[in-house]
Design a protein that fits this description.
Number of strands: 0
Strand content: under 5%
Radius of gyration: 20 Å
Largest sheet: none
Helix content: over 70%
Structural class: mainly alpha
Length: about 230
């Protein structure tokens, strides 16, 4: 493990963008594969409970075949390419630029309360929405959907995703901006992206789930609707 860390730091120093791209691609691929595996396991167990004639042996055999035979590798490749093409390069420049702006432009003291708060707010309200919009748009187009359908899916998925993961990411980023050197901040984020990519992939493939509609309605309800 120590040798791998030394190698990573060396590659990061020599080729920072390429190293971030490769790391992001690997972790996003793993995250999507996990999302698929978890979703299938849940769906199969629910189906087996509803079918009283299914035996325990059949259930176990079915679950054993889940990951090996039913993984959508095109979807895994799409998630990986998003990590390579967007998360790696854009994330690298984002954290470097955020550090520079806070110190050189705003003249904030590193690790101070205002320094960390400014970074978290910028990451939550600037990079967060861009990241989500890019993810849902890219994965939709990469799956072969027409543009109108992609726009519909983005409108359906953006707010529920942003509302549910926003608080979690804010907590993650407080620790990131306080304790992690800027050159390693994207790696730190990518480790959590292992979970986040699984979550976003799961959200994207939940279609018109009731919980999505409920969360969207909390924001999209207009005063006129309230009066009525």
């Amino acid at each position: 493990m120590k040798g791998a860390w030394v190698w990573y730091r060396f590659r990061l120093q020599q080729q920072p963008i390429r190293t971030q791209m490769v790391t992001s691609g690997i972790l996003w691929a793993i995250g999507d594969a996990i999302a698929q595996s978890v979703s299938r396991s849940i769906e199969q167990r629910l189906a087996m409970k509803e079918n009283s004639t299914t035996t325990i042996v059949d259930e176990n055999k079915c679950l054993e075949r889940t990951f090996e035979h039913n993984t959508d590798w095109r979807r895994v490749a799409t998630a990986s390419s998003f990590g390579i093409g967007f998360v790696g390069p854009v994330g690298h420049f984002w954290y470097e630029a955020l550090e520079s702006v806070c110190i050189n432009t705003f003249k904030l003291k590193p690790n101070s309360f205002r320094f960390i708060t400014t970074k978290v707010m910028a990451d939550t309200f600037l990079f967060g929405p861009v990241h989500l919009l890019a993810f849902f748009t890219y994965t939709g187009l990469a799956s072969g959907k027409p543009w109108d359908e992609v726009k519909h899916d983005v409108k359906r998925d953006f707010l529920p995703s942003y509302m549910t993961e926003g608080l979690g990411w804010a907590i993650v980023q407080v620790a990131n901006f306080r304790f992690v050197p800027v050159r390693h901040q994207l790696l730190y984020v990518n480790c959590f992206c292992l979970v986040d990519s699984a979550y976003l992939s799961w959200v994207k493939h939940q279609d018109n789930a009731p919980w999505k509609k409920y969360l969207t309605s909390l924001v999209s309800s207009s005063p006129n609707n309230t009066k009525n």
